[in-house]
Predict the structure of Guanylate-binding protein 5 isoform X2.
Amino acid sequence: MEPETQMPGPVCLIENTKGQLVVNPEALKILSAITQPLVVVAIVGLCRTGKSYLMNQLAGKNKGFSVGSTVQTHTKGIWMWCVPHPKKSDHTLVLLDTEGLGDVEKGDKNNDTQIFALAILLSSTFVYNTINKIDQRAIDLLYYVTELSDLLRTLSSSDLDEVEDAADFVSFYPDLVWTLRDFYLSLQADGQLITADDYLENSLRPKQDTDQNLQNFNLPRLCIQKFFPIKKCFVFDLPTHQKKLTQLETLNNDELYPDFVRQVTDFCYYIFHYSKTKTLSGGIEVNGPYLESLVLTYVNVISSGDLPCMENSVLALAQTKNLTAVKKAIAHYDQQMGQKVQLPVETLLELLDLHSASEIEAFEVFTKNSFKDVDQRFQKELKTLLKAKQDDLCKQNLEISSDYCSALLQNIFGPLEEDVKRGIYSKPGGHRLFIQKTEELKAKYYQEPRKGIQAEETLQKYLQSKESVSNTILQTDLALTAREKEMEEARIKAEAAKAEAQRLKEIQRQNEQMMQQRERLHQEQVRQMEINRANFLAQQQRDLERRLQN
C-alpha cells in the first residue's frame, strides 16, 4: 500500500511563541489528509539530551529534527514528522519532538508542563528521555504532568464526546518508554544482574508502610503505574567520544560506539513492533483528522487559561488527592462501623472502643492515599469529621436505645395499664398487689437483651410517669381499707351486742327456769306438807277413834 503522505522533513505542529501555544495550520492540513490509523510517538526530556537524535532514527534519517550541538536549544514547541510505518503498511507513524524542558532562556516552567502534558495526551507511545539514572525528581515531574494531563483531558472531555470507563482509561493513555541517556550505572540489584526493565520496575515499586513520608514516596509511583500499565526501559551509553558529540548528525554508525548503536537499534525495533495505534474512547482508532481535533481541543483548553500552572496544579493535585483520601477514609470508617456496630450497644465504652478501632483504620487509609498534607489540614479535617461521626453515633445510640426501651416498656407494662383501667387494683390491698406486679414486670424488662445505654433511664422515666397511678391506687386502697375496717369494727360490735343480748337472754331464761324449778319445788313441798298434814290428821283421827273405842 502506497503511503498517504510523504514529508521530506518535520514541520512545527504547535508553535511556542513567548509562552503562548499556537497550532500551525499547515501542519493541521497535513494531518487532515491522512486517513490511515496513526501510531503516535512523542518524546519529552530535558533540553540537549539527544531527544531529536532518537526521533530522527525512528524516521530512518540522520537529519530531520534539529539536533542541538550548542548551549542554545533548537526545538521550540512541538514538531511533527509523519512517515510511513516501517512495519505496518496500513498505518502512518507520527513522530512528535518536543521543546526541551528546563531551558534557562525561557524560564517558564508552566510552559514546559503544558508541552509535556500535550505530548502525553497526543501520543500512543510516550518516550521519557532522562539523563544518567531514574531519580525522584524525574519521577515527581512525570507524576505531576501525568496528573495535569488527566486534568486537561477531563476539561476537554465534553468537546471530545468522551465517556469514561476503566477500559477506555487504560487504552487512552500511551505506553511509557523510559530512555536513560549517558547511563553509567551497573544494572545490578542484591548482587544479581538485572535488566533495564527490572531497574524501571524497581524504581517505581512502592514501599510497604503507612508512614506519611513513605506515602509521599509511594503516591507518584502508584500514579505512574496506574496511568502507564505498559512500561519499557532502555539505557544508552555515550554515543561517541565527547569531542565528536557536536557532529552526531554527520557520523556514520561505524564512528559511534557499538554498544550505543546496538541500543538505538533495540529501541527502534521495539517502537516499530510494539507501539500501539492511538485510540479514543470506545476503541476508535485515531487517524489524521482525529489527531487534528485532539490538537485543537487541547491547545484551546490551555489557551483558555482553565489549566492551572505547575505550582497551582501541585496545590490543586494535593487538594484533590487529599479530599479523595478523606472521602476514602470516611467511606472505610462507615463501612467498618456498619459491619461492627449494631445499635443500640449496651455501653458507651463499647461504642467508643469500636469507634476508636475504626478511626485508626480510617487514618491509615487517609495516610495511604494522602499527598503533601504538609500542614495536616486534611488530617485535621478528617479528625473533625470522625469526631462528628462519633457524636452522631452516640446520639443515634441514645435515640435508638430510648425508642427501643420505650416500645419494650409499653409492650411489657401495657397489660398492667389495662388492668389498672379496669379497676383490678381498686380494692383493699390493691396497692400491694400493684407493686408486686410492677416488680415482676421490671424483672422481665431487665431480662430483655440489647436495650442499650438508655435502659435504666428510660425505665425510671416510665416509672416516674406512673407514680400518680400508683398513688391513686394507694389512696383508693387506703380509703377502701379504712371503710372496711370501720365496717368490721361495726360488725364486731354488733356481734358483741348480739352475743351480750343472747347471754342476757340465756341468763334470763336460766333465771326463769330456776324460778320455775323453785316454784315447782315449793309447790311440791306444799303438796307434801299438805300430804303430811293430811296423814298426820288422819293418824290423829285414827288415834282418836281408837281411844274412843278403847
